[in-house]
Design a protein that fits this description.
This protein has 108 residues and is mainly beta. Helix content is 9%, strand content 33%. The longest helix has 6 residues, at 81-86. It starts with a strand and ends with a strand.
Length: 108
């Protein structure tokens, strides 16, 4: 599990890169956001998160910026450990004082 917190700027342009330290560079990882409650306010998810669903039903990505929603999941994507450490992935845009958790799991 990794966490990303927004401390100030509403929507930096371009969105920052999120790099994950301490990974095995030879392993592939599935990275997906995890919400323990409602989505962060002002959420603009990056494309690599994939198609959001709520209670198993696809929803519009654009709806997440205006409305905090419960029971939203994203499939995430698979990346090489070396890429996650050195290049990283696009960060979501969220309002200040919001947090996104990420679950990383190895892929065979």
């Amino acid at each position: 599990m990794f966490a990303q917190a927004a401390l100030d700027s509403l929507y930096p342009d371009p969105a920052g890169r999120l790099r994950f330290r301490g990974l095995d560079p030879t392993v592939r990882y599935k990275v997906a956001p995890v919400f323990t409650g409602p989505t962060p306010s002002g959420l603009v998810p990056p494309e690599w998160w994939g198609q959001p669903t709520s209670a198993g039903v696809p929803i519009a990505r654009t709806s997440l910026r205006a409305t905090v929603q419960d029971d939203v999941t994203f499939p995430g994507a698979v990346f090489a450990g070396s890429s996650l450490e050195k290049v990283g992935v696009a960060s979501p845009r969220i309002h200040p004082d919001q947090v996104v958790l990420y679950r990383l799991s190895t892929v065979d």
